């Protein structure tokens, strides 16, 4: 009897810890906002809610051998969403990808939810030099920080 009580008490503690961990992963407030979130091309056109201080990572397919790159199109309200960094990740660094000559990789953008508010994030895929070609590829996201 005592052994069964100890087992049940242990399971109750594990369940409580699991619930706290889930709440922490959601931002600790249970309101559906994320502390850290990863988005990609499939999220274009959506709205994302973040907690203040959260990090958002955006990964978009890119191929620097073509001269095309992702760039901000339009103003970004950095009092709401601050650009922290951008890097190109080659195909040899992407898990499960064959490192073929001329193969594309990903551009990874990192943002921080700086303050409460709503802003639009818009990127376009284009060649950056004067007279460079424009692409019809756009990425758009509405970010709501609370």
Describe this structure in words.
With 146 residues, the protein is an alpha/beta fold. It folds into 2 domains: 1-31; 33-145, Sandwich (Immunoglobulin-like). The chain has one helix at residues 2-25; strands spanning 34-40, 47-62, 68-72, 81-89, 105-113, 117-127, 134-145. Strands 1, 2, 3, 4, 5, 6 and 7 form a 7-stranded mixed beta sheet that branches. The longest helix has 24 residues, at 2-25.
Range of strand content:
over 45%
Name of the CATH architecture of the largest domain: Sandwich
Distance between the termini: 49 Å
Outline type: globular
Number of domains: 2
Structural class: alpha/beta
CATH domain class name of the largest domain: Mainly Beta
C-alpha Rg (nearest Å): 21 Å
Give the ordered list of helices and strands: HEEEEEEE
Keywords:
Immunoglobulin-like, 146 residues, alpha/beta, 1 helix, 2 domains, seven-stranded mixed sheet, disordered N terminus, globular
Provide a compact summary of the structure.
The chain is an alpha/beta fold. It is built from one helix and seven strands.
Outline the secondary-structure elements.
Layout: H1 2-25, E1 34-40, E2 47-62, E3 68-72, E4 81-89, E5 105-113, E6 117-127, E7 134-145
Parallel strand pairs: 1-2, 2-7
Antiparallel strand pairs: 2-5, 3-6, 4-5, 6-7
């Amino acid at each position: 009897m005592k052994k069964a009580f100890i087992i049940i008490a242990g399971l109750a503690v594990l369940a409580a810890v699991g619930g706290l961990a889930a709440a922490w992963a959601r931002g600790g407030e249970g309101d559906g906002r994320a502390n850290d979130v990863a988005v990609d091309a499939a999220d274009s056109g959506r709205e994302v809610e973040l907690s203040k201080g959260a990090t958002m990572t955006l990964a978009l397919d890119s191929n620097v051998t073509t001269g095309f790159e992702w760039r901000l199109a339009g103003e970004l309200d950095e009092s709401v969403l601050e650009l922290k960094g951008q890097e190109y990740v080659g195909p040899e660094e992407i898990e499960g990808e064959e490192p073929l000559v001329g193969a594309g990789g990903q551009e990874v953008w990192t943002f921080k939810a700086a303050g409460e508010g709503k802003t639009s994030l818009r990127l376009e895929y284009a060649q950056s030099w004067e007279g460079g070609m424009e692409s019809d590829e756009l990425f758009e996201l509405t970010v709501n920080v609370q």
